[in-house]
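Intended use. Records like the one below are meant for learning the mapping from a protein sequence to its folded structure. Do not use them to infer anything beyond what is encoded.
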Amino acid sequence: MQSLVQDLRYGFRQLTKSPGFALTAIISLALGIGATTAVFSVVYAVLLDPYPYANADRMVHFVASTKTVPDWWIEFTGPQYQKLRESPLVEAMAAFHGESVTTTGGELPEQLNATYFTGNAFSFFGVPPLLGRDLQPSDAPEGGDPEPVVVLGYKFWQRHYNGERDVVGKTIQLVHKTYTIVGVAPARFTWDDGDVYLPMKLSADPSKTIAIITRLKPGVTHAAIDAQFQPFFTEFAKETPTYFPAVAFRVTSRGLNEHFVRQLGPTLYLLLGSVAMLLLIGCGNVSILLLARGTAREHEFAVRSAVGAGRLRLIRQLLTESLVLSLGGVVLGVLLAYRTVTAIVSMLPEFSFPHEAAIQINLPVLCFGAGLAILTGIVFGLSPALQFSVEVSQVMQSSTRKVLGGVRGKRIHNLLIGGQIALTLGLLASAGAAIRGFIRLNHVHLGYNPHNVMSVGVQLNEGNYTTWQSRAQYFNQLMQKVAAMPEVKMAGLSTNATPPDNGWINKFEVLGKPSAEDQQAHLNWVSKEYFPVLQIPLLEGRLWDETETQRAARLAVINETMASRFFPAGDALGHQIRMPNMKAGTGGAVGIPESNDWFQIVGVVGDALDDGLDKPVRPGVYVPYTVFMPPFTHILVRTEVAPLSILNGVRRQIQLVNADQQADKDVRSLEERITSRREWAQQHLVAMVFGAFAALALSLAAIGLYSVVSYTVAQRTNEFGIRMALGAQRGDVLRMVFRSTSVSVGGGILAGVLLSLAMKRVIMQWAQGSSISLAVLLGVTVLLAIVGAMACVLPARRASSIDPMQALRYE
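Structure written out for the chain above:
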């Protein structure tokens, strides 16, 4: 024990004598361990094990796939659900639908996300409640009215009841109806992001639709269930055509997490590859530092051996020092991992991963990274003692320092430096491509002005404003009240047309022209104020006026893309179009009886993004919102001030029209809606993380190269002195130093270029909108070459300024 304490003291003294070396080694390991652990923890939680549900691997959704729409999420009627659940391939099936409800009976109404479940839903998911009980089949008897009971979502329970455990048995009033609280869902049960979970009445009314979740029997393949359900879906499409594509489709079953894996998986796997490279660079950097330090201490080892220290004693001392470094890197890496996980989660696209996922540090990966760091420290830290085979007398009598391992040692150094340079160049090229793609996304032409505009959603409570006249009057009152506020420049209505992802994809026909099977456009229901609020220009024709809005005139305005594609002669005005599926009475919508009849085109407006930020504008049709009014709308508000600063005022105006109705709790400015888009957030995540990792890798590579050159110069001090005494000039010494590293650096850059070219296709596929172009590759190659040269400059200048007489007396 005493000798161990002595080794630790001596090791700490040695490390404190070289604080730059110690800090660089520890930080190199910490960065690799922390980043790798954090990213894999996110990958594991989001993609590999996100759900707490029993047999989640056998749960599926059903979507309809067409040539133009790969995922059409289908809604079903009660009888259709009952028919599907009888399938012999289905083990269990549950149904649900979401609504917006408002708390009443208190001082201030609060809008909640209510999820209505069939009575078997909680047993289907197999997650026990945190408090009380869950919903039972007796709470939602088929053919009868559901019981007035409610299960609270965990976050709502924490927010509204401060986590009180005696909440079970109390009551809550939702839209003037009293419900008894029977339980609280656990923290990870967030299905449909419900604030409250209520029993659902299964209705035969075709206008009341539900979504279903299915658990297949063991061994049943997706192909088998798709084939069995295809005839059912074809029949359902004839019964309720509004809920299915108007063109030929096929049934596709999707795993519970398949949608998220396709969206976010490539991005996370790309980041996982980048942190693996960073871990290798960090370990390589430590290897270079330890080898170079071992070289510098060769004389020390010889002296210690001469005074009686055996090989085992030297090994034990070096092992102690290596473990101190490695464990220091591990401890700092663990702390960094926790902080990095939080940072990555904050940058994840909001709705691109299951909210059930418990993202936390993955211990097996943390142990792997720590083990690799410790192994690196041990192997390369012990190498001086393991390779120390020079006779003590030769080293003691030598007037020069030998490079560890001679030619073999130089080769190891060159390989490590070259590998580090290659990986760094690959990371730099990938980061450059990601940043370039993100910049391009930020400069995409929107076609509208999102500055100082917010979208305030209003979801009607069930049973409110069920007639066309009452709903049209209510929506108009909302708009007028908000528009009258002094801070508001203008307000407009948009039931489904808040960019950059707006409209209802619908088949349309042009009177007198043949219609293709896949002829579709984005259908938008808006007020005439919508266009000036968003500053979308009117290119030709006119908009409808207030009188035409109030009588729901069958008038249409189309976008520039639709005009050029379907009316290339420029004669769109006066033509008539119709959307056969725009029929009132479905999904709680009310409208005029002729809502699916012919509309006259009266104007053409400029293109505005309507299919996300990374896709071209699709054909768009705008019609007066009074033609077809779903039970929700959005008030678009252009303000003189920051939009969200007047949100409470807008809420008060909405409450003045109807005290029981509230605006959506999630209100955002249009600029925030852009930055919360999946494609924007993913590009931002990749650009930020790749950029940070690449900067760290570049720093590590520069430090590693600087360390090797510095130690090499120190070893050759005597040689440089002799050469300069014999007439060598300062430039000759500079060239010698640069030439000694040119092979490893040049080889590393060449290998890095090849690695970057190999990664080009992966970057294009997994970081959409990004590509390693020739300009990016050339730029990062020049940058790395400059950094490499700068890392050599200081040691080279020091070598060239050596006083020959001092160098000859060196050692």
